[in-house]
Specification:
The complex is a heterodimer. Chain A is α/β, with parallel strands linked by helices. Chain A has a single domain, classed as 3-Layer(aba) Sandwich (Rossmann fold). Chain A is built from ten helices and eight strands. Chain B has one domain: Beta-grasp domain (Ubiquitin-like (UB roll)), CATH 3.10.20. In chain B, strands 2-1-5-3-4 form a five-stranded mixed β-sheet, with helices on one face. In chain B, strand 3 and strand 4 form a beta hairpin. Chain B is globular. Chain B starts with a strand and ends in a 7-residue tail after the last strand. The chains are: A alpha/beta, B alpha+beta. At the A-B interface, helix 7, strand 5, helix 9, strand 7 and strand 8 of A face strand 4 and strand 5 of B. Chain A: This is Molybdopterin-synthase adenylyltransferase. Chain A: It comes from Leptospirillum ferrodiazotrophum. Chain A: It catalyses: [molybdopterin-synthase sulfur-carrier protein]-C-terminal Gly-Gly + ATP + H(+) = [molybdopterin-synthase sulfur-carrier protein]-C-terminal Gly-Gly-AMP + diphosphate.
């Protein structure tokens, strides 16, 4: 692939890094990344991936932009309140970098559509807001052998990990075998979330995606990064692969993607 | 054995907003007993009716998940750190 003059300028700070170079920038431009949730985490993830020149970015989210989103969802703005998040996001990303093809999917991710949606992408990024979706994302990524970069936030704390259950690394079910029953763990709209936390965790996810595409460095596979904004501490814990994991263990009981993404969404989309 | 127990933000309501408390015990189970006696109500957030650790809560002794050691019977020693890590799902809304 030959770079245009404007691309050499745009990506010059990447190309000059020996770990990236022209070859790495080509990899980024031909990479296809699906971002689940165009909200708090999806915003910084998608914006940094677009800036980095990731060639194809899929955005899936069924919500429209609400004014209460703007405290942290920096891909959206006052001007796009009321517009589907995936279209608001597409506008922001293509304005930032016209090299990027954004695929807006205004839909709910379900057990029925996950496999087909994921099959077009190299890396999956989870920035969803409920456990039902997180297990669907994990299971579909596992069956399709895709790397899953998972991030979550609540109040002042965030978690990041990279899941590759199709390898010797763990999947989300190795880390958390079952979802909490509805009501036991509060959602962000019930419990609140520090806006900037979405940026911290989302940019860490973006860094892992870029590293995965480039094939450089050490990913957060088999490790869980915990960030506490109040104490300003980062900690890394080990996440072993569970040999008895119902999905990626030696005698799995889960053989298809199933489950609902709806049962935990009892809170209005505000 | 006195160990530090790290409390995640969703459970801090029960510990008077403390993110770190000290408890005595020889095993993780005894540490949880101590927690419950000082902060009533915390145990049911961590273990189910049969006393097993809930499947969406992880307890780490230092950097290791106790599910992959001796579970609640994992022994602790002075200076260890016990961390309670719940699954969280926020991100989009």
């Amino acid at each position: 692939m030959a770079f245009r003059e404007d691309q050499i300028q745009r990506y010059s700070r990447h190309i000059i890094l020996k770990e990236v170079g022209g070859k790495g920038q080509e990899k980024l431009l031909s990479a296809r990344v699906l971002v689940i949730g165009a909200g708090g985490l999806g915003s910084p993830v998608a914006m940094y991936l677009a800036a980095a020149g990731v060639g194809t970015i899929g955005l899936i989210d069924m919500d429209v932009v609400d004014v209460s989103n703007l405290q942290r969802q920096i891909m959206h703005s006052q001007a796009t309140v009321g517009i589907p998040k995936v279209l608001s996001g597409q506008k922001t990303l293509t304005r930032m970098n016209p090299d990027v093809r954004v695929i807006p999917i205004q839909d709910r991710l379900t057990a029925e559509n996950a496999m087909e949606l994921f099959s077009d992408y190299d890396v999956i990024v989870d920035g969803s807001d409920n456990f039902g979706t997180r297990y669907i994302v994990n299971d579909a990524a596992f069956f399709l052998k895709k790397t899953l970069v998972s991030g979550s936030i609540l109040r002042f704390e965030g978690q990041v990990t990279v899941l590759e259950g199709h390898t010797s690394a763990p999947c989300y079910r190795c880390l958390y075998p079952e979802a909490p029953p509805p009501g036991l763990v509060p959602s962000c709209s019930e419990a609140g979330v520090l806006g900037v936390l979405a940026g911290t965790i989302g940019t860490l996810q973006a860094a892992e995606v870029v590293k995965k595409v480039l094939g450089v460095g050490e990913l957060l596979t088999g490790r869980l990064l915990l960030y506490d904004a109040l104490s300003m501490t980062f900690r890394k814990l080990k996440v072993p692969k569970d040999p008895h994991c119902a999905l990626c263990g030696s005698s799995p009981t889960i053989t298809t993607v199933s489950g609902s993404s709806e049962w935990v969404c009892q809170v209005p989309a505000s | 054995m006195s160990v530090v127990v790290r409390i995640p933000t969703p459970l801090r309501k029960l510990t008077g907003n403390q993110g770190e408390v000290r408890e005595e015990g020889k095993t993780v189970r005894e540490i949880l007993d101590g927690l419950e006696s000082h902060y009533p109500g915390i145990r049911e957030r961590l273990t189910d009716e049969s006393g097993e650790l809930r499947r969406f809560i992880n307890i780490y002794l230092n950097e290791e998940d106790i599910r992959f050691a001796e579970g609640l019977d994992t022994t602790v020693k002075a200076g260890d750190e016990v961390s309670i890590i719940p699954a969280i799902a926020g991100g989009s809304r």
